[in-house]
Design a protein that fits this description.
Elements: H1 2-8, H2 12-33, H3 66-102, H4 104-117, H5 122-133, H6 137-164, H7 167-174, H8 179-215, H9 227-234, H10 243-270, H11 272-277
């Protein structure tokens, strides 16, 4: 572990991604206990104020404090990312392991089901769900989570198949271990690094998807702040107050960039071949 951190601190992508991801987490944690102003407080006389000592990033068209909305918006991004990736990872890894362990028609059925699921991207699935149940944060999480299931299923199956072909798995089968015990004792520990990297990248994708859904009015609903909806509200004021679009846009870009850099760094550090080169 000490060697891992020694290499990690020398890896530029990992360090940069870790700093940006830590900043996102810090914003969300800070908003749980403090924001400059109540996030839903409307002050019409004070609308569209420029950055000042009173309002660090200014106010929007309803007089709400932009800094407070950005802080609370980080909460939504993390909640969506954690739950959606958890759904995708939980079901996807299970299906991928079953496909790899059973093979034959079971593997074919699961993989063809994954291919079918890819025909319904998160945005389209969210539109279908909101048409039935109405828009909201929960529907966004469900849609993004379902979209992640085939992603993890395919990655798990491909990585697990490589492990099942290894000599130590053959020895375990010869010793009388069943598929479940081999999966738990040998397969999952050997593909854990791949799953961790994919979870990091899927987290970034989930944040981007939530912002897109909220921008379209299908995600987080008022008065709960969302970076995507802040972009939507700012588009009619681009010439009057362009900074209203800059702040949430930068927050989304830095969050997604940070998680992608972190994922790339983890991939390099956890891959034995790449690790030996460093």
């Amino acid at each position: 572990m000490q060697g891992f951190w020694h290499r990690a601190l020398r890896h530029k992508s990992f360090v940069a991604g870790g700093v940006l991801t830590a900043l996102l987490a810090a914003m969300a944690l800070l908003s749980l206990v403090w924001t400059p102003y109540p996030v839903a407080e409307i002050d019409i006389p004070g609308k569209l104020q420029p950055p000042s000592a009173a309002h660090w990033l200014g106010t929007d068209s309803l007089g709400r404090d932009i800094a407070s909305q950005l802080l609370v918006g980080a909460q939504n991004s993390i909640v969506v990312g954690v739950i959606a990736v958890g759904i995708g990872m939980g079901f996807g890894v299970l299906l991928g392991c079953i496909a790899s362990a059973r093979r034959g028609w079971v593997e074919e059925l699961i993989m063809r089901g994954s291919d079918f699921a890819f025909a319904f991207p998160a945005l389209l699935l969210a539109i279908m769900l909101t048409a039935i149940y109405g828009p909201g944060l929960v529907m966004s999480i469900v849609a993004i989570g379902i979209f992640n299931i085939p992603v993890f299923a395919r990655i798990t199956r491909g990585s697990a198949n490589a492990v099942w072909a290894r000599e130590f798995v053959l020895a375990a089968r010869t010793a009388g271990k069943g598929p479940v015990r081999i999966t738990l004792d040998h397969v999952l520990p050997n593909i854990a690094s791949v799953l961790i990297v994919q979870a990091t990248i899927s987290f970034a994708t989930a944040i981007l998807a939530e912002a897109a859904l909220s921008y379209l009015g299908l995600g987080t609903q008022p008065p709960q702040p969302s970076w995507g909806r802040m972009l939507n509200e700012a588009q009619t004021l681009m010439f009057q107050a362009p900074l209203l679009a800059v702040y949430p846009g930068v927050a989304i870009v830095l969050s997604v960039l940070g998680l992608n850099l972190l994922g790339d760094g983890l991939r390099d550090l956890m891959d034995p071949k790449l690790a030996r080169k460093r």
